[in-house]
Amino acid sequence: QIIAPKQIALATGRPLVLLPQTYGPFSRATSRRVARKFLAAARLAYARDEDSYVRLQELLGDRFDPARHRLGVDLAFGLKPKAPAKLDPSVAHALGDDSSERVGLNMSGLIANRPQDAAARFGLDCDYRALMLGLVSWFLENTDARLLLIPHVHAPRGHYESDLDAAVTLVESLPGQYASAARERITILKEPLDACELKWLIARCHWFCGTRMHSTIAGISSGVPTAALAYSLKTSGVFKTCEVGESVIDLRRVHEDAALESLMHLWRHRTSTASTLAGVLPGVRALAARQMDEIADCAKQDWSIEGAVQC
Prior knowledge:
six-stranded parallel beta sheet, 49% helix, three-stranded parallel beta sheet
């Protein structure tokens, strides 16, 4: 599924462009060999962060060409936010209430709904459900913030990837002493919004904590101080692009108690994080625009099938 479209492009003489992504790590020699083949043949290949760019250069070795192999940023940095045509009244009310800060939370169904499977698959060292329960309980007990739970993957209800199922289960699991506060201060986004609409919504939070990587990119690319709960190497590099690498908590390396302490620290220092993002984002957005121009220019060139590469 991953390799065949690239083979078709090369076999028909069409330019192969690899959009900004994470490369590796490839644990098997055959995987490294195949990756090197397509990277070397690509007309353009972008890494979305410095760490991945180093791996890209290591994979290519003497076939690395800085004119074609470039450092870029995730395409989501250039995504334009769009206000939804209609919002559920409860969500609209939460957005219209300026009496307290809004905290956005994205809980991943992939990690929460089958916790044992997720722990084995990703090597997690953290009880994710307990962490999220502790975080929401802490906010209800120690702040007056309004909590907005934002699913980012709209799998059908009952599917193991459903972020909405994870959010609903989280609220239902809150201890009884928080029931009243939860009814008043927690809102769950239940209607499916597209990526532009979700970015618009996340941008209206004063602080955001997400597990789905692209939910967190929606946060940092909008200048919202954002904490990321990561379960792979991808997230760290993207956050380092915006000089906020310390805002990533790796669930593979910390227990839930330590993770919760880190989240509380990031909440308390949200103003400093927002200031860092404000200084860095203009350059990141300019890079996002420039790489799109490069990709568009590549697509406009008159490519012939005469030089088809047989795979």
